[in-house]
Design a protein that fits this description.
five-stranded antiparallel beta sheet; binds 2-acetamido-2-deoxy-beta-D-glucopyranose; single chain; about 425 residues; mainly beta; 2 helices
Length: about 425
């Protein structure tokens, strides 16, 4: 009943090169052919190659049935990097949100961990794989940037640096001027790190705004002896940050706060923690609980499903997706677990809500695929397709290394249900 992504990928033809601004060496490569019917495209999924010479965003169209079609490769003008020490392993940045889209702002930003910069793009909501770079990459004002957060309007962007010079820094986002540093938003975390960062332990993981945009959160992994924490900065009306941060330590049993996903309507986050499973942390009340996932090894990434109200956590080493429910008293229960192929290394994930359907996208680098699921109901995840990344990248002449790829973010236009996106290739050129 669905179009297999691999069948569509087989229709790929040799790419044509489009030079948008040759003076700045920007390039966008078309990956799909005109014979691919994209009339039903409703959004896009993006991730970064994070290659050391040139970092490239791969953009795939989301069809109305959830399947993906790899459509474009867009260079960022910066370079990627791989954290220390094991270069021959996935998860190079030890982070979530190394690339992030804002549906409200219709913008996309990506980190360049090797050149300490951030690249901003405008997303065309009628053709969401069509990205236009805005300005030159902006300095992250630190080293080894690994994570990005937009505020709810998409007009402020903060970056998390995880190298020797670590901390946060925020920018005003403008569709014409690009990224302009916000005064008094460059704040240190004071971590004892290297450049590139040495992980997994003791690295910064993710930066995230609170639901009301008045606080900026940073998750920091510790180690078994020195548990990590959530750093909480106050965000002032002018966008500046408090000089110091409040520290919420990881709960007893936990130690390595990894990604953070907001629990809607609360001041709490679900925080995967490779030490135990996950933590529930209320960053205002300073109440914390660690929850064990039996048999877990490296639970690191997370997303929230509007349809079920459940959270989806991925474990790199066991290649397992764990569905978690959190009740109004912040009590968490494991709803179900879904084992993926052993050794596929399920990592970055995000959920696209299309009408009343939620699709879950999971980057599985060791298999160089994106696993695609429909979230049918609480406890019910249905596999839709598996998108091969290696074949189309090779056909288009793009370097894609399983150990370097990172990040995954979705974009669905805010008015997606009112206006059907027409992504027919013939209208783009
Ligand atoms: C920083 O970490 C290194 C390597 O673990 C250690 O040798 C050094 O003593 C640490 N420095 C401080 C100030 O803690
Ligand atoms: C939160 O509570 C812990 C002890 O449970 C304490 O060490 C820490 O300082 C508290 N943080 C804040 C911001 O109150
Ligand atoms: C990645 O795949 C290789 C070969 O298929 C396997 O030996 C290795 O254990 C996998 N890595 C992880 C972290 O699962």
């Amino acid at each position: 009943m669905f179009f297999s992504a691999t069948v569509l990928a087989a229709a790929l033809v040799a790419p044509s090169f489009v030079s948008a601004a040759p003076l700045q060496r920007r390039s966008s490569i078309k990956m799909s052919s005109a014979s691919v019917n994209l009339d039903t495209a409703v959004g896009a999924v993006y991730f970064i190659t994070n290659e050391g010479d040139i970092n490239t965003i791969l953009a795939a169209n989301i069809n109305s049935d959830g399947t993906l079609v790899l459509d474009r490769a867009i260079t960022t003008g910066g370079s990627g990097a791989h954290g220390l020490e094991d270069l021959e392993a996935p998860d190079p940045l030890f982070s979530q949100a190394s690339i992030k889209a804002s549906a409200e702002g219709e913008v996309l930003a990506a980190v360049n961990a090797g050149s300490n910069s951030i690249t901003l793009f405008a997303i065309d909501p009628a053709d969401p794989t069509n990205l236009q770079q805005i300005g030159n990459p902006a300095s992250s004002e630190g080293e080894f940037p690994v994570s990005l957060a937009f505020n709810s309007k998409g007009d402020t962007l903060c970056v998390l640096n995880s190298g020797t010079v670590n901390g946060v820094n925020c920018f005003d986002v403008d569709k014409v001027a690009g990224l302009t540093g916000i005064p008094n938003s460059l704040r240190s975390l004071g971590l004892n790190q290297t450049n590139p960062a040495t992980g997994l332990e003791n690295t910064a993981s993710q930066v995230l705004f609170s639901e009301d945009d008045t606080q900026l959160l940073v998750s920091v992994k510790g180690d078994a002896q020195n548990p990590g924490f959530i750093a909480v900065f106050d965000v002032q009306a002018d966008g500046s940050l408090s000089d110091d941060f409040k520290q919420i330590p990881a709960p007893q049993g936990g130690a390595l706060p990894f990604s953070m996903t907001l629990i809607p309507g609360t001041t709490a986050v679900v925080v995967p923690d490779p030490q135990i499973g996950f933590d529930i942390i209320d960053f205002v009340a300073n109440t914390t609980t660690a929850v064990k996932i039996d048999g877990q090894k490296t639970t690191g990434w997370s997303s929230f499903s509007v349809k079920t109200g459940d959270f989806f956590l991925t474990d790199l080493d066991t290649s397992t997706i764990t569905e978690v429910n959190v009740d109004e008293n912040l009590k968490a229960t494991i709803v179900n677990q879904f084992e993926q192929g052993a050794g596929t290394t399920t990592m970055d994930n995000d959920i696209a809500t299309v009408g009343d359907t939620d699709f879950l996208y999971v980057l599985a680098p060791n298999a160089t695929v994106i696993d695609i699921f429909e979230i049918i109901a609480a406890g019910k995840l249905q596999s839709v397709a598996t998108l091969d990344l290696a074949g189309p990248a090779q056909d288009a002449g793009i370097t894609l290394n399983a150990f370097n790829i990172q990040g995954l973010t979705t974009f669905v236009p805010v008015d997606a249900n009112a206006q059907k996106v027409n992504s027919n290739v013939n209208t783009k050129l």
